[in-house]
Every structure is written in C-alpha cells, then in structure tokens.
Amino acid sequence: MAHKIVATQYGEPTASVELIEVPEPEPGPGDVVVRVTAAGVNPFDAKQVTGRMGADPDKLPLSLGGEAAGVVHAAGAESGFAVGEDVVVYPAAGAYAEYVLAPAANVHRRPEGLGEDQAAALLLAGVTAADILATLEVTGDDVLLVHGGAGSVGSIVTARALAGGATVIATASPANHDYLRSLGAIPVSYDGDLAAAVRAAAPAPVTAVSDTAGTDQAIDVSLALVRPDRIVSIAAWGRTGDGITVIGGGTERSRRQRREAIPGLLDDAAAGRIVVEIAGTFPLAEAGAALAAVAGPHPRGKYVLHP
Ligand SMILES: NC(=O)c1ccc[n+]([C@@H]2O[C@H](COP(=O)([O-])OP(=O)(O)OC[C@H]3O[C@@H](n4cnc5c(N)ncnc54)[C@H](OP(=O)(O)O)[C@@H]3O)[C@@H](O)[C@H]2O)c1
Known about the structure:
By secondary structure, the protein is of the alpha/beta class. The strands form three sheets. Strands 3, 5, 6, 7, 8, 15 and 16 form a seven-stranded mixed beta sheet that branches. Strands 11-10-9-12-13-14 form a six-stranded parallel beta sheet, sandwiched between helices. The protein folds into two domains: 139 residues, Quinone Oxidoreductase, Chain A, domain 1, CATH 3.90.180.10; 125 residues, 3-Layer(aba) Sandwich (Rossmann fold). The mean pLDDT is 98. It is built from nine helices and 16 strands. The site of NADP nicotinamide-adenine-dinucleotide phosphate has 27 residues, from helix 2, helix 3 and helix 4. It comes from Gordonia caeni.
C-alpha cells in the first residue's frame, strides 16, 4: 500500500485535506510509475481545495498536485524508461503522493545539475512563463512590464525576457527589489500611482505587458501604457472583455507552446540560467499547511512536499 493526499471537502486547506492509504499504482504498457521524492506546491492546488476553481461535490475526494520529481519505480514495456532513472513528471495528476502514475510523454529525465526540489517546482511555472513570452512574441526590442516579477511565473518571464535582450520593468513588494535588480530588471512597487512609477522608471515607453497578478490595478495600468493586444495575463479572467489575452493552457497554441518549452526549461535550470528558489519544504502529511502558505502572502520561492 501507499499514501496520497486528497481533499475530502472544499474549504480552508488545513481542515480539508487528508493523507489516505491507496494501492500502489501499476503501469500500463506506455506508463511510468514514479516514486515521488518532491512535489511542487502551486497556487492552483490551493484554489482547487478552497473551491475557487469550482466546488463540485461529485469530484471529491480530489487528488492534488500537478508536478513532481522522483525515481522510476516501475516502467511499462513501451514507455522507454527504466527502473531507477531520475525523472520529473509534468503534467502530473495527483503528485501529492508517494507514487504517481503518468504516461511516458509526461515523464522527463532530470538533467544532472538540477536538484530534486528545484525540478519538482520548475515546470508548471516555467511552461506558463514560456507561454506568456511566446504569445506576446517578446523580442530584444521590447520594453516589457512584468506585473508580479518576483513570483514563481513572473521571475521566469523576467529572466528569459532579459536573456533575450528585452528591457524589463517588474512590479514587486520592496523586499523583492534587490532580487529583481540582481536579475537585471528595473523594480517598481505596485502600491501607489503605478502608471506614473512605471513611466518614471522605464528608459523607453513600455511595449508589452506580462501579468500574473490579475488585479484590476495591473490591467488598468497596462491598458494606459500599451494596446490591449500587447497584454497577456494568466490571472485576469474577468478582464477578457478589455481585449487583453488571458491564457490558461486551454488552447491548442497554448498547449503546444507549453509542451515545447519543457526541454529548454530543464536545460536552463540545470545550467543556472533559471534559478528556482525554494521557500520551504513540508512533509507530505503537512500538505494542508503548505497549501495554506502558498494561498496567502508568502516569501519568494516555491514550497515543496517531501513524501
Ligand atoms: N493561467 C495559467 O496557466 C496559470 C499558471 C500558473 C499560475 N497561474 C496563476 O498565476 C498567479 C501567479 O502564480 P505564481 O505561481 O507565480 O504565484 P506566486 O509565486 O505566489 O507569485 C505571486 C506574485 O504576485 C505578486 N503580487 C501580489 N500582489 C500583487 C499585486 N497587487 N500587484 C502585483 N503583483 C502582486 C507577489 O509579489 P510580491 O511577493 O513581490 O509582493 C508575488 O511575486 C496565481 O494566481 C496562479 O494561480 C495561472
């Protein structure tokens, strides 16, 4: 037998998730069973538990967790993997577990130089960042405003846009400004008159916007600076009527851009071109506390669960 975390109700995470006993999964011919050593914790997981993504009682108990790192425990004959290989699973279904079953297409060899915690926390944010940049078609000529530039997604948007030669103005709390400067971005606080602060900080007019904050302030300021077709958000679902693009991996283009980004993200993280900071680790049984932490104001970096 093995263990996994499920939500047994919708609500506050610490009161809503449980560690339960389940049979060890068995792979079909094209599948891989991975013994999870680290599972990434994402804001989406917390939104699932609180019911912000919908609260259908028929979906309970709900498996949680979209990404993990681990070791191949059992490999289907047609999977192309062998027992003992170090791998990353993304997208994963039910990664808050001792074992996760995935089709081989969702299993990626973990490159040397990329730690387990970093690998477990890289891909969901990374493919989202890559999707934003590809959808915006950001080039080295752009002056890119990144709302939430020190966040998990925003920091990868920032690092990659800078690597491509763009100028980046990034919003964050003052505590994250030195970090943004260390990446090469120009930091701006999001409290106060944000449009004026961006105009004052930008060496040239802003030409494109990446939004991971999803606030009306972020979208209103963006619309004051650039045309709506140069604004891509992953969180402002209520503002599509303004002509901005909001992406969630649901379109064929978005799915392709995310899938194609995975090898480059693994390479960049292994080589240190992307640095995944770990804000904290929790035992699997304390997933509720990890979910509560990621749902509220929290330090920069990712939370990771250890089975
Ligand atoms: N649609 C998709 O495909 C997709 C994929 C992944 C994530 N998401 C969503 O995108 C959001 C960000 O995810 P994440 O993993 O990057 O989260 P995260 O690591 O928690 O980062 C959130 C960032 O938002 C910043 N922030 C907080 N309040 C803000 C405000 N009023 N204005 C501007 N920035 C603000 C924070 O900055 P400071 O700490 O500096 O204050 C923090 O850096 C979440 O809502 C998540 O569910 C969507």
